[in-house]
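JOB MANIFEST
job_type = single_chain_structure
chain_count = 1
residues = 214
[input]
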Amino acid sequence: MKSKKSKPWRWTKTPRAKSLFQWSRWLHVYLSTALFTLLLFFSVTGITLNHPQWAADTSAPEELSTDIPGSIRNQLLSQSGAALDGLTDHIALTTGLSDPRSIDVDWELGEIEFDYPLPAGYAFVIAELDSGTLLIEHKQGSLLALLNDLHKGRHTGPAWSWLIDISAAVISIFAITGMIILLQHKRYRRAGLSAALAGTLLPWLYYWLYVPAL
């Protein structure tokens, strides 16, 4: 005679449950291999983000200059706002910088300033119309600072933001399939569910006990 305690888990022996477990194992194995590098990346940078002093950078910014094409300069000297697109395209072509965060135009001074946010750095481009010169000041932080900004998706562009979103979704599936596989194994079920409950409650306990709040 079977124990009543086993009844709630009888569903794990049904054909539908077995099919679910089979698919979960397949997904869990291949998602774990596909996500191996990304999981390590986000885990390690999660630690380095918690210690920002490790990524401190004291290097000086770099400066360089180049000429503004004569045709674009002449259009800008006539204060043609449409010529800004041509100048923006020229900067992208010569420096690789695109999508400026802001463009400040001062026709009286004859200067146009472009602000380009970069992960772990920045770039400012100043177009001096009188001299026909582009002044470029940029700074790139350390490799660790770059990895931290990649983790946060800071100034990384829409493509990298999509990568973060997709990775988070796939990691969630990886975690869920692992929990489903656990339910199939009677021997480890109780200990595994207890560990999952502890892993859920402990962060909240730490939050209430140690995180400053009003």
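[summary]
The chain has two domains: 10-54+145-206, 60-140.
The longest strand covers residues 111-118.
exit_status = 0
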